[in-house]
Automatic annotation (TrEMBL):
<keyword id="KW-0067">ATP-binding</keyword>
<dbReference type="InterPro" id="IPR011761">
    <property type="entry name" value="ATP-grasp"/>
</dbReference>
<dbReference type="InterPro" id="IPR052032">
    <property type="entry name" value="ATP-dep_AA_Ligase"/>
</dbReference>
<feature type="domain" description="ATP-grasp">
    <location>
        <begin position="111"/>
        <end position="309"/>
    </location>
</feature>
<keyword id="KW-0547">Nucleotide-binding</keyword>
<dbReference type="Pfam" id="PF13535">
    <property type="entry name" value="ATP-grasp_4"/>
</dbReference>
<protein>
    <submittedName>
        <fullName>Biotin carboxylase</fullName>
    </submittedName>
</protein>
<keyword id="KW-0436">Ligase</keyword>
Amino acid sequence: MKRLVVVGTGPRLYREFMLRSIGERYDVHLVIGRPAEWETPYVRGVSVVPGMAADGIVAAVRDVVARDAADGVMTWAEDHVVGTALAAAAVGLPGPGPDAARACRDKHLTRSALAARGVPQPQSELVADVAEARAVAEKFGYPVVVKPRAGVASQAVALVRDGEELADHFASAHRLPAAGLRSPDRFVMIEEYLTGPEIAVDSVVRDGRVLPVFVSHKEMGYAPYFEETGHWTRGDDPLLGDPEITRFLAQVHAAIRYATGATHTELKLTDEGPKLIEINGRLGGDLLSYLCDSASGVDPGLALAAVSCGDAPDLTRTRALCAGIRFAYPPWHETRVEGIAFDESALPPEAGLAVPLVRPGEVVLLPHKDLMEGRVAFATAAAGTRAELSAALDRALAALRCTWSPA
């Protein structure tokens, strides 16, 4: 059994299924910022690194390798992408490379690397203040997208249609921290708005070769924000084998010199072909890997573990279903939750997970410019077709029983 160092875990609800499957195949040593809790049954050893700074992660991985040796090191946690890449390089294990990891964390570095190689993407400029932002927006032409340089989960990303809206949303993007970025006084980006369907492709990469694992399609809401209200994936999605998309993914990864690991690449399918929205140096969130397994039988976590140890991943598809997740939101901008639960007798047979995300007494907010945490519950389902999946998710969320009032 190979020894694998896993850096960070994240929320139990969204990541336990991957740690469980990896723990069945690998001797796992965990590097986290607190004593192990729910992770304990799936790991053989734990190193606690308070604060989880990059140098602490590197030191912990060095210590594990010196004491017990290791075949690989990996993470699926956005905050630890750079630290894990530095650790892999320090001990001579497969990894994306520190510069590639930094390019995934810093959207401006991504844009610069792609521009140098002529890879299609929206026009984008880094700005320091509202005056610069307005000048760039007028050059590109409204509407434009304002986004923080190192944000996650679409926080503070907005579509703006004029200068007044731009000033308001610039302030929100500017408030997000930009720790670890070069030129930290310039960490808001103004970008051309692209039209066309948006997809995400999760891939594993082995020695620079990009292996697409699954395609996910977004359901969006709460404009002008880009809140992801749901996702769905198809086990036999024809886009997985689309030669134009395959070439594009290879171009993107080559531009940032990504060597080994996993990526979540978001792109728009425009009239001029695929264009990059962003690339993340880890697997997608929101249970996307769980949906991939449900739809195709492929476990992305195990695929990442394999390439991290220098092995070929098993991407054999054993199912061809549609699987999806949909999130529920409160009815008012500020809502007090008094009671929340799913009526299991009302769930459709296609339903998988049905989980409340808040508890009675909590006050929740609808998505707005400073917050993207308005979800109160989610449901997953798997079905034979996209239409059947959508109907099943509708019925699953209809089984959510809530009592609440304006806060």
